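Running co-folding for zinc ion.
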Amino acid sequence: MQSAVIAPSILSANFARLGEEVDNVLAAGADWVHFDVMDNHYVPNLTIGPLVCEALRKHGVTAPIDVHLMVEPVDRIVPDFAQAGASLISFHPEASRHVHRTIQLIKAEGCLAGLVLNPATPLEVLDYVLEDLDMVLLMSVNPGFGGQAFIPSTLDKLRQVRARIDAIGKPIRLEIDGGVKPENIGAIAAAGADTFVAGSAIFGKPDYRAVVDAMRSEIAR
Ligand code: DX5
Ligand code: ZN
C-alpha cells in the first residue's frame, strides 16, 4: 500500500477567503487539495469551476489539486481543468458515454486519472479499465453535499477494491470520500483506503492541525 494522503475537501471551506483556507490546511499537514466540481445536473448542487482552480495556482498553491468532477457530460471540461492546474481528475462513469475514452483524455491532457464509484455503483465498472487508472475513488455518501454520514457498507466495498488493486500490483490509489472523520478513519484505513477526503471534519473545526494529526495517528494504528 502507498503512503497515506489526506485531501481536505474545500467544499466545506470558507469560499470568501479560499486562498487563505487552503494555505492554512496545507500548513496544518494536509497533502492534497480535494476540489469538488458540481454542475446542478449530474448532482443537485452547484460549486466551482476551472477559474477557481487556476486562481489557487496563481495564489501559489503547489500541492496536488485533486479534482472530483460531478459534471455531465464530463469530457468537454477536462482540458479546461488540465490547463487550470489540476493534478488528478476523477469522474463518474455515469457522466461519460465512453469511460475508456475519458480516461485516455485525462491522461493525454497530462493529468492522473481517477474513476469514482457511487455507493450503489457496482464494482464491474472497473472491469477492463482498472489497469488504466491512477486512482479509484469510492464515494461513502451520495455525491452532492458535504456533511453527510458515512455509509457503512462502503467498508466491504473498500476491501474488495483493495483486493483487486493488490491483485494487479500497480500503484493505483484508493480514495474514500464522504463522512470521513477521526472516529472512523482507522476502520476505513484498515479496509484498504490510502487516500482520505474530509471536508466538514476538517474545515468545520477551529484547529485544522489537530484534526489532521488525529487522522494520521488513527491511520497509523
Ligand atoms: C460530496 C463531495 C465530498 C464532500 C465531503 O459530493 O464529493 O468531497 O465534500 O464532505 P464531508 O467530508 O463533509 O462528507
Ligand atoms: Zn469529492
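Result summary
The chain has a mean pLDDT of 98.
Residues 5-220 form a domain with the TIM Barrel fold (CATH 3.20.20.70).
Job closed.
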